[in-house]
TrEMBL record, chain A:
The UniProt record lists the keyword Acetylation: no
InterPro entries noted in UniProt: ABC_transp_permease (IPR001851), LivM-like (IPR043428)
A GO CC annotation given for this chain: plasma membrane
GO molecular function term, any single one: branched-chain amino acid transmembrane transporter activity
Keyword field: Cell membrane, Membrane, Transmembrane, Transmembrane helix
Any single Pfam family the record assigns to this protein: BPD_transp_2
Entry membrane topology: Multi-pass membrane protein
Localization (cell): Cell inner membrane
Name of the protein in question: Branched-chain amino acid ABC transporter permease
Chief location of this protein within or outside the cell: membrane
Protein source organism: Vreelandella salicampi
TrEMBL record, chain B:
GO biological process: D-alanine transmembrane transport; L-alanine transport; L-isoleucine import across plasma membrane
Transmembrane segments: 20-39, 46-68, 74-95, 107-128, 164-181, 209-233, 239-256, 263-282, 302-323
Family note: Belongs to the binding-protein-dependent transport system permease family. LivHM subfamily.
Organism ancestry: Bacteria, Pseudomonadati, Pseudomonadota, Gammaproteobacteria, Oceanospirillales
GO cellular component, one term: plasma membrane
Biological source species: Vreelandella salicampi
Molecular function GO terms recorded: L-isoleucine transmembrane transporter activity; L-leucine transmembrane transporter activity; L-phenylalanine transmembrane transporter activity; L-valine transmembrane transporter activity
Subcellular localization: Cell inner membrane
Membrane topology field: Multi-pass membrane protein
Keywords carried by this UniProt record: Amino-acid transport, Cell inner membrane, Cell membrane, Membrane, Transmembrane, Transmembrane helix, Transport
Database matches in PANTHER family: BRANCHED-CHAIN AMINO ACID TRANSPORT SYSTEM PERMEASE PROTEIN LIVH, HIGH-AFFINITY BRANCHED-CHAIN AMINO ACID TRANSPORT SYSTEM PERMEASE PROTEIN LIVH
Protein name from the UniProt record: Branched-chain amino acid ABC transporter permease
UniProtKB/TrEMBL annotation, chain C:
Protein's name according to its UniProt entry: ABC transporter ATP-binding protein
Family of the protein in this entry: Belongs to the ABC transporter superfamily.
Single annotated GO MF: ATP hydrolysis activity
The keyword Magnesium belongs to this UniProt entry's keyword annotation: no
Domain ABC transporter span(s) in chain numbering: 4-234
PANTHER family, sorted: HIGH-AFFINITY BRANCHED-CHAIN AMINO ACID TRANSPORT ATP-BINDING PROTEIN LIVF
SMART domains (alphabetical): AAA (SM00382)
Record carries keyword Transcription: no
Entry keyword set: Amino-acid transport, ATP-binding, Nucleotide-binding, Transport
The organism's taxonomic lineage, starting at the top: Bacteria, Pseudomonadati, Pseudomonadota, Gammaproteobacteria, Oceanospirillales
GO biological process entries: L-amino acid transport
Cleaved signal peptide residues: none
Length: 435, 334, 234
């Protein structure tokens, strides 16, 4: 039968010389050197830092998709949360806000919100006092709606006041890494909420819910001007490493790169340990045969939730580092294409479930992605020049923005092609068979 | 009374309009789900493609409608439906069928459909740009103002011409779908395959044929939904994910795999959206004088402002997944 | 020419073979019964005949023509009908729609065959508008058989038709099978209730470990002390 040679390929003899890995990484190294030669050190280092941040996002997704078989279609949302926290914690304190009575007002509304929540929870317990269940539900819904309207009206008042008098609440003036950690935690919290609802159900539901939460997070960040300045954007964001003004562009970026490299190395080591620990084996057992794992008494939903939350934490962390590096918080800059689907391509092309493959995929795809912009424009220019010369064709004026749309197309083609022709990626997960 | 008319315009009419559109889209999603067992994430862009076809055809023959007296876009709709159905069948042949043949998990099909949605987005925006365009290329949008026969009502009920067409077309589509599923041999075979695919095959039903028929119906309906949406407002090439969430929410609320449930779910989501963004202060205005002095209502009493409209289908989705994951009408596929 | 002939059939899932050389011959007017211990490959053999399992080696002939590895819908066209053990109805379709699906490839026959099936299973006529999922176990089995008969098969494959039914219904099902056979339909069924099944069998096939252990008439197998000792529980 034809399955025999295919299986041979999957069996990874531990002592085998990793020819494939060495070749692929050597090629990647060459590509990086090529970019350095062509585009200069400052540009290329920036590209590498961004690629490193993307590698963290990709590690988050490879945990969820590769280890756990869970598909997260809303990486963008978790990235944006991380970016928001990085901004909130690192930006200097805004005295126009903190020096007035506004923080107290805001705190009061938050207290009201907590009180309202407690009241609603209390009302849902009314059936213990002998109130019929249907009546209890009706009361709870009505009370909930009214209290919600009260709180949201108060909040609108206060936030309107903040916007007109102080612009936005500003930051906490803390080091950026505090924001990254909190961003990871916040992303993990949202992931817990989503995962708790969806992980026991069909896997499609998780994809739908994450897609939705990502758009909601973006809408919230975009429209809460009092918190984020909305479309007015916040910049600059301070770095935890010396900035370009102190040591120059290339060195500053190189320092930032070393920091991200350390973070990746630590994550890589921890994930490697976890993957080969009993916990990792259990996760894979659940992914490969849910029924058998359940029959052996594994708490499937709990393990799934752990894996999903862990992935979301990494996405929040990576999102924070990426946003800090760009030194700009722009809610409109978070796009499904750049922050969800690009990461997806990195993971499925590199090798879902294989950390090394994922990092390779992240750097390789990011280089292609960054280079595709100038190349597409150049190609478009060529076509336009050729069209004008040969047929007197009057090209549409918005050629540039249309060339960018071509990237959407390319990512789509890549996803479908990889799924069909290389479903295990370039560096497949090493699964040992015991037969 | 004026306030009530305002309520009708902003909630009843607007809710039925978006409800109809969501319903038609959700029926397609739920049919695909029941036959191929995966959530088709490219559906919103298939809808956009249908509307784009109408736009291109209407631009090519702008005067076609005037001779009969209905908007050109509606004359072009059947042709656009055929084209969109062909596109859907083609997408299946090129992208989904090879994956099915490999026997992949449904979630891989979902990722594949996300790839397809990006391809469609890229192509549509490459040709149509990203700006909005009116589907009324050469016609005028009629607006009907129905004054109510009461003394003190000054505000009329407003319904536009495309909205009337929308209600009629939705009704026709639903009835046609009902007849197809319950009376025709292929429709019954579709339900049979949704019930028990192995037995359908063992009965000699050609499953490839049923899959193709499903794509034809889903594609045709998507063209209708996309066109009606674009007629009501304008043709927007970049709605994609904003359209996808309410449609999936509608399909899940109705019970996945349950076409009538999807229709009901579409209206549930549509009305919930319009109720949530409605400013309730308007309805309370007539009673303002009888309120106690200490109660000063804020001028904006909407549950969510329009920018957060997407929260509504998400909230419905979360609520249904927590309390009744099979949907209101007990879907077959969980 | 025999209705069905299997020669040295090997097959299974992936690279694991479950069938290791099964031989069978069934004439057009016969009832064949496959018995054997659990895991002997009984249902697998039925699936191999009905094209749901890849045959690696050997051949299966229907009226002299090779049919192995043809898709099920082609086999239905050639006059084969299959009733799976579980999930053998369309639960949300009405009884009548279930039957109509059986005649999907022969739509012009529907009216005539519906009348015949209702004649054969009168309880189904009364419940024809009810969703089949609401019926009792025995009635569901009737729907399943009726659906398969709608295509006017020349060979009917049944996978444990009496599994999970009370003894009363069990005898009824065996009577029905005999009646169907008397109307000119060849029958091949897998059965756990080996004694009762062999009693109505013209041919019996005792499988073990994916191979024929005994092949004879039903009567002879029942009389064989060795068969009785090893496979019929003494």
């Amino acid at each position: 039968m034809s399955t025999q040679p295919k299986r041979e390929d999957l069996v990874a003899a531990p002592s085998r010389f990793p020819l494939r890995e060495v070749l692929l990484f050597a090629a990647l190294m060459l590509a990086v050197l090529g970019v350095y030669a062509a585009m200069g050190a400052a540009y290329s280092t920036r590209m590498l830092v961004e690629a490193a941040c993307y590698a963290i996002l990709a590690l988050g997704l490879t945990i969820q998709w590769g280890y756990g078989g869970q598909f997260n279609a809303g990486v963008m949302g978790f990235v944006a949360l991380g970016g928001f926290c990085a901004m909130l914690f690192s930006v200097p304190i805004n005295d126009a806000f903190w020096g007035t009575e506004l923080p107290g007002e805001l705190g009061r509304v938050l207290l009201y919100a907590i009180a309202a929540t407690l009241v609603v929870i209390g009302v849902t317990r009314l059936d213990r006092l002998g109130v019929p269940k249907t009546l209890r539900t009706v009361i709870a819904v009505v009370v909930g709606l009214i209290l919600y309207l009260v709180v949201i009206s108060l909040l609108r008042e206060v936030t309107g006041e903040i916007e007109s008098r102080a612009g936005f609440i500003g930051g906490f003036g803390l080091p950026a890494w505090v924001g990254w950690i909190v961003g990871g935690a916040l992303a993990g919290g949202v992931g817990y909420f989503i995962g708790h609802i969806c992980l026991g159900l069909r896997s499609d539901y998780l994809a739908i819910a994450t897609l939705g939460i990502a758009e909601i997070i973006k809408a919230f960040l975009k429209n809460s001007d009092w918190l984020t300045r909305g479309t007015a954007t916040v910049s600059p964001l301070p770095w935890p490493t010396p900035g370009p003004s102190e040591v120059g562009f290339t060195l500053a970026r190189a320092l930032y790169l070393s920091m991200t490299a350390v973070v990746i190395a630590v994550l890589f080591f921890l994930l490697h340990r976890a993957y080969h620990a009993p916990w990792g084996r259990m996760i894979r057992a659940i992914r490969d045969n849910e029924v058998a794992a359940a029959a052996m008494g594994k708490d499937i939903n709990r393990r799934r939730l752990e894996i999903f939350v862990l992935g979301c934490i990494l996405m929040g962390l990576g999102g924070g580092m990426l946003t800090s590096f760009n030194s700009l918080f722009d809610p409109n800059g978070y796009l499904p294409l750049n922050h969800t689907f690009l990461v997806l391509v990195m993971v499925i092309l590199g090798g879902p479930g294989n950390n090394l493959g994922t990092i390779f995929g992240a750097v390789a795809v990011y280089i292609i992605w960054i280079m595709s912009g100038p190349m597409a424009l150049w190609l478009m220019q060529l076509i336009v020049t050729f069209g004008e010369g040969a047929f007197g064709w009057d090209a549409p004026s918005n050629m540039d923005s249309r060339a960018l749309q071509a990237r959407v197309l390319v990512i789509g083609v890549l996803i479908t092609a990889v799924l069909r022709f290389a479903p295990k990626g370039l560096l497949p997960e090493k699964i040992r068979h015991h037969d | 009374m004026n306030e009530l008319v305002f309520f009708i315009n902003n909630v009843v009419v607007a809710g039925s309009v978006s409800g109809s559109i969501y319903a038609i889209g959700a029926v397609g999603v739920t049919l695909i789900f029941s036959i191929m067992r995966f959530a088709h994430f490219a559906h919103a862009d298939v809808m956009t493609f249908g509307a784009l076809m109408v736009l291109l055809l209407s631009t090519a023959f702008p005067a076609a409608g005037a001779s009969i007296g209905i908007p050109t876009a509606l004359i072009m709709l059947p042709l656009a439906m055929v084209l969109t159905a062909a596109l859907a069948v083609g997408i299946d042949k090129v992208f989904y069928k090879p994956l099915r043949a490999h026997g992949v998990k449904p979630i891989v099909m979902v990722i594949g459909s996300l790839g397809v949605t990006l391809i469609l987005q890229g192509l549509i925006r490459l040709f149509a740009g990203t700006g909005g365009q009116s589907l009324y290329v050469d016609d005028r949008k009629e607006i009907f103002r129905l004054a109510l026969p009461f003394e003190d009502v000054r505000v009329p009920v407003v319904i536009t011409e495309p909205q009337l067409y929308l209600f009629v077309i939705t009704l026709v589509a639903v009835i046609a779908l009902h007849l197809f599923l319950n009376r025709s041999r292929l429709g019954k075979a579709m339900r049979a395959m949704s019930d028990n695919p192995e037995l359908a095959q063992a009965s000699g039903i050609n499953t490839n044929l049923i899959v193709a028929v499903t794509w034809v119906i889903a594609g045709g309906l998507a063209a209708i939904a996309g066109t009606l949406l674009s007629l009501d407002v304008t043709f927007k090439p970049d709605l994609s994910f904003f359209l996808l969430l309410p449609i999936f929410a509608a399909a899940i609320v109705g019970g996945v795999g349950h076409p009538y449930g999807a229709i009901a779910g579409g209206f549930v989501v549509g009305f919930a959206e319009s109720l949530a963004v409605f400013n309730w202060n308007i309805l309370l205005r007539p009673f303002r004088d009888s309120f106690p002095a200490w109660l000063e209502l804020p001028t904006d009493l909407a549950f969510v402002s329009t920018e957060y409209k997407i929260v509504v289908p998400f909230f419905i989705l979360v609520a249904i997944l927590i309390w009744r994951p099979t949907g209101l009408f007990k879907g077959k596929v969980i | 020419m025999p209705l069905l002939e299997a020669r040295d059939v090997h097959g299974g899932y992936g690279s694991m073979n479950i069938l290791n050389g099964v031989n069978m011959t069934l004439e057009a007017d016969e009832v064949g019964v496959i018995v054997g211990p659990n895991g002997a490959g009984k249902s697998t053999m039925l699936k191999a005949i009905f094209g749901q399992l890849h045959v690696n080696q050997g051949e299966i002939l229907l009226l002299g023509e090779p049919i192995h590895n043809l898709p099920p819908n082609k086999l239905v066209q050639r006059g084969m009908g299959f009733i799976p053990q579980e999930k053998n109805i369309f639960p949300s379709l009405s009884v009548q729609e279930n039957l109509e699906m059986g005649a999907f490839l022969k739509p012009h026959n529907v009216k005539r065959m519906l009348a015949q099936v209702y004649d054969f299973f009168p309880p189904l006529y009364e419940k024809r508008r009810q969703p089949a999922g609401e019926l009792s176990g025995g009635q569901r089995q009737m729907v399943a058989m009726g659906r398969a008969l709608m295509a006017e098969p020349s060979l009917l494959l049944l996978d444990e038709p009496t599994a999970g039914l009370s003894p009363l219904y069990m005898n009824d099902i065996f009577d029905r099978v005999k009646e169907i056979n008397a109307a000119g339909v060849g029958i091949l069924m897998v059965e756990q209730n080996a004694k009762q099944a062999l009693a109505i069998a013209d041919k019996g096939f005792v499988l073990a470990a994916g191979q024929n252990r005994f092949t004879d008439t039903g009567e002879a197998l029942l009389a064989d002390p060795e068969v009785a000792k090893s496979f019929l529980g003494g």
